[in-house]
Amino acid sequence: MSLEIRSYIESDEKAVAVLWRRAFPDSPPWNVPEEDIRRKLSVQRELFLVAMRGSELLGTAMGGYDGHRGWVYYVVVSPEHRRQGIGKALMRRVEKSLAELGCPKLNLQVRASNAQAVSFYKRLGYEVEERISMSKRLESAEHLP
User: Structural domain tally of the chain?
Assistant: First the structure.
């Protein structure tokens, strides 16, 4: 059976949430898969991709473009299906979709301790850039001044 990469549909939610929890067991408590899925579906849902073989969900990738840079998140392949080209196929599809939107550069973040992911992205032509990643947790809009 061949690999199909398609946009996420609502019936994928349970399998995606299970995969993400399995792949990221040490995620911070605010990274709730169902909430991340819901938020993504409200913005550029066509850039939320799943890799399928028949009815089995094998991987995901979530892209975004803000008019300046593209980003990719949640690139995950189930452990038993890694090293079969699925992650590469997902990334190439995200890259193509973003390029079609006019995106000039794609960024991503990898935990410094995840040498396997760094190696994967380097094989796809990504480079480590000297940057400091910063973030701030935002309260809901009604609590902001």
Answer: 1
Give a three-class secondary structure readout of 9-76: CHHHHHHHHHHHHHHCCCCCCCCCHHHHHHHHHCCCHHHEEEEEECCEEEEEEEEEECCCCEEEEEEE
- pTM for this prediction: 0.89
Of 34, 55, 123, 42, give the one whose Cα is nearest residue 87. Answer: 123
Fill in the amino acid letter for 66.
D
Residue at 110 is within a domain = yes
Whether 136 is covered by a domain: the verdict is no
* pLDDT 10s digits, 42-51: 999 999 999 9
